Amino acid sequence: MSALGLSLMLMAGLALLLGAVLGFAAVRFRVEGDPIAAQIDAILPQTQCGQCGYPGCKPYAEAIANDEADINQCPPGGDDGVRKLAELLGRDYKPLNAEHGAPAPRALAVIDEARCIGCTLCIQACPVDAIVGAAKHMHTVIAAECTGCELCIAPCPVDCIAMLPVGVTIPTWRYPTIPLKVVA
Amino acid sequence: MSVRQLHRFHGGVHPPEHKMASNGSRIEPAPLPPQLIIALSQHIGSPAEPLVAVGERVLKGQMIAQASGTLSAAVHASSSGTVLAIEPRPSAHPSGLAAPCIVIATDGEERWLERQPVPWRDWLAAGDVRAIRDYLRDMGVVGLGGAMFPSHLKLTGGALQTLVINGAECEPYISCDDRLMRERAGEIVAGIALLAELTQASEVLVGIEDNKPEAIEAMRLAAGGSAIDIVAVPTIYPSGGAKQLIRILTGKEVAAGVRSTDLGVQCFNVGTVYAAYRALEHGEPLISRIVTLTGTVAKPGNVEALLGTPLDFLLHHAGAHDEMEACIYGGPMMGFALPTLAAGLTKAGNCLLAKSQAILPRAPAEMPCIRCGACADACPAELQPMDLYWFARSKQFGRAQERNLFDCIECGACAYVCPSHIRLVDYYRYAKSEIWAAERDKQAADLARERHTFRQFRLERDKQEKAERLAARAAAAKQQAAGKAEAAAKTAQAATAVEQASAANASMPAGDTVAASKGAPSMDDKQAKIAAAMARAAARRAGTPATGDTPDPVLPSVAAAQNEPATPAPALTESAATPAGSDDAAALRAERIRQAMATAKARRTGTLAPPPADPKQQKREMEAARLAAMSVDERAALEAEKKAKIAAAMARVAAQRQGEETSAQRQSEDQPAQRGDEEKS
Ligand code: SF4
Ligand code: SF4
Ligand code: SF4
Ligand code: SF4
Predict the structure, then answer these.
(1) B440 in a structural domain
(2) Given this model, what pLDDT does residue B566 score?
(3) Residue B534 structural domain
């Protein structure tokens, strides 16, 4: 009896101890935030344009994670983006919802500096602080940081901001997809 | 000479060499073209920055673009002449896309910039390797074997164990290095000695494939008596790959992600050695290179062509036949078909191969992979090409990367042996460029995410700070208002204000302003007045020449305003001239200017702003009237171009500062903007 009892007690004690350790760890090392929303956010293009109907990519990611939004509302992400989201969430692919706009070639905002009156309205609109300037001085766009969201276009009182398409240059050129002609 | 134990690399193939066509004749100077199209990006890394302007006269050898950043090299005028244009021109790249170039109209005089050898030995003795590196960078010396890696970056200052000089030239058809070694062995050996001194190499090995006996002989003669070991290596493609040659000569395996320098080995192409020698001993920048012109041409051979010589000019010189259907830049294994011949010769251009059906028949249609493994046997980088092909084809780039896609040197050995004629290298290039593009997109997205998050944080922080400031002000106003309550209570208007203020509510801005102005005028009030006066003065100045198309009533009213800039206006007049003086008017300026802009916009679209509204007894309506009146005023200014606009914006800023309490809504929009400026500036 004693051997059996001892081992039973030992096991019970161990179970309790480990349970306590696990319980403590669960509280102490809890992962903050919603990992699924973060994974969705990682797929979204971060243009922060609001075309999806949410004030930025992260809120949209959270809405998808909470099942409040569909996965086909982000035009900058394009079809590829929807596919990736579908794969991540184990849902069916569906084409982009045209209500939210169509994917457009990537463009950069460019300020006609001679016409800018320095009203700072575009700075307030830019979701990524890609515009520099000071009140009553001309403003300009930091090309490397502009996401092409077009949010600065509407507020400009003198309409001096234009979106210029980003052309393909040699460093950004992609080797063409090979026509797959597999003889059956 | 010495009997050296050679090693083997994995795989390799034996394509027909076809070198005889071009290696029989001496290197000839190519004729001077009427125009030189000199690309700014003739090296790995950032393109060079132009130093000349259109229309400027340049001398042969003059630096026309300087290195930008670490990974870059300078570019020089290959001949004397005039800069015709600095613009994107089609480039010698598989895409054929335009890239920035400097176009020089040659004057035929070939006038050199004064050349001076540099005292690099003194620099070296003084331990100043940096000076030598900078000099080589400014001489535009880059790897001429095809990689175009800026050579100065290979001189790390540390001592090397083995210096490997690459004279293998394994690619079919090409014979530029062969001819260079045969004809200029002395200079190459001098250059090797120089590099050996710079790198303090204890051992110098020159690898030359044994299908070039004349070159080996010439090099051995030139190197006689020195410590330079000229080694004949077996002819097997791609023995001229840097990793492969290092393996053959030293037995050292340069693993993925390891730089050969870390193993104490460094490899230079013979052409590069020659260029470094000309630069250091003769002060000559890299302005020309040897090019093999071969294939279906009348006069195959090697020419020394100026960089920037248009490729069609070179082909014409060689007498390209009519049956030429494409021109390959580089050799048949690693080169690519040029989409355009209008590009200028670059530092990478070792060969122009005029292709015809007879010379390089079009590959038969691709068949499915039968997993025969021939490609894996041939791969010098010991990869599994059929797997990489599969992953690239099915767009599983991550898995291709896991299988060391980036170790692939694109030698083409696998495609050469593939019985299914699969253009394997094209798939790898495609996969690599997709991976790079995804990497760029990811970096851009990460940057945008970070900046957006920070912006959110900044807006939140500003809101908090403002709330605190407002609370403090409201408390102060409450005290003041309490003290002056009796005096203020004289007019009904003010009484309302006091009531509002004593409610100590930050969102009751009008009362706050009035109370503050009735008490001791703050600094802000003065500043607002000054700014307002300045604005009006500027508006007047700008407005005067615009009389022709400005509505008449505006000008007199502005003129009236100038005499009494800071006079407090009778609160109930609708005069357009006076509002700036009154305190609450200053507080309302932001609204006005916004209105003015709306007017300007409306005018642009053809609809004129409505005429000023009639003044009413009610305060609100009176303000509206003044607003509209001001908008006419400002309209004149706006009409008169930017100066007035700037003035208006100035006024607005001042008003913003003053009017912080005026409207909670306005604030929450404007203040962050200023903050944003500060942070960025
Ligand atoms: S549409 Fe796409 S890119 Fe634009 S904010 Fe929404 S998720 Fe971001
Ligand atoms: S500059 Fe304009 S287009 Fe670019 S990110 Fe800012 S708001 Fe968007
Ligand atoms: S919104 Fe237009 S006018 Fe105002 S600062 Fe920006 S670019 Fe200049
Ligand atoms: S050589 Fe061609 S057919 Fe054979 S395994 Fe490789 S890719 Fe497939």
Answers:
(1) no
(2) 38
(3) 482-680
| A144 C-alpha to ligand 4 centroid (Å) | 42
Residues of chain B with Cβ-Cβ distance to A130 below 8 Å are 451
Regarding the beta carbon of A140 and ligand 3, being less than 6 Å apart is answered no
Q: What is the ipTM of this complex?
A: 0.79
Nearest CB to B646; choose among A121, A136, A173: A136
Domain count, chain B: 2
Phi and psi torsions of B99, nearest 5°? -135, 155
Q: Is A159 left (phi over 0), alpha (psi -120 to 50) or beta?
A: left
Q: What is the pLDDT of residue B233?
A: 92
- Nearest alpha carbon, ligand 3 atom 6: A122
Q: How far is B675 from chain A (nearest CA, A)?
A: 9
More confident residue, B258 or A164: A164
Do residue A70 and residue A108 come from a single domain?
no
B635 part of contact set with chain A, CB < 8 Å: no
What CATH number does the domain containing A87 carry? 1.10.15.40
One-character DSSP codes across B464-520: HHHHHHHHHHHHHHHHHHHHTHHHHTTSHHHHHHHHHHHTT-TT-HHHHHHHHHHSS
CA distance A111 to chain B (A): 15
Per-residue model confidence as pLDDT tens digits over A89-130: 988 888 888 888 888 888 899 999 889 998 999 999 999 999
- Which is nearest to A151 in space by CA: B442, B437, B452, B645? B452
Strand B265-269 to strand B288-295: parallel, antiparallel, or no bridges (unpaired)?
unpaired
- Cβ neighbours around A177 below 10 Å, total: 12
What pLDDT score does B130 carry?
87
**Are residues A56 and A112 part of one domain?**
no
Which domain range does residue A44 map to? 35-100
- Per-position b or e across A69-78, b if 16+ CB within 10 A of its CB: bebbbbbbbe
Q: How far is the CA of A121 from the centre of ligand 1 (A)?
A: 21
| CA-closest candidate to residue B273, choices B141, B153, B175 | B141
Decide which of B269, B298, B317 is a domain's last residue: B317
> Last residue of a domain, which of B297, B317, B337?
B317
Q: Which atom of ligand 3 is nearest to the CA of A111?
A: 7
Q: What is the pTM of this model?
A: 0.69
Per-residue pLDDT at B65: 93
Same domain, A96 and A108: no
CATH number, domain with residue B288: 3.40.50.11540
Q: So what's the pLDDT on residue B615?
A: 38
The count of structural domains within chain A is 2
Residues of chain B with pLDDT under 70: 1-3, 483-681
Helix (H, G, I), strand (E, B) or coil at B261: helix
Percent of chain A with pLDDT over 70: 93
Residue B9 lies in a domain: no
Residue A6 lies in a domain: no
In a domain, B346, yes or no: no
pLDDT at residue B498, rounded to an integer: 46
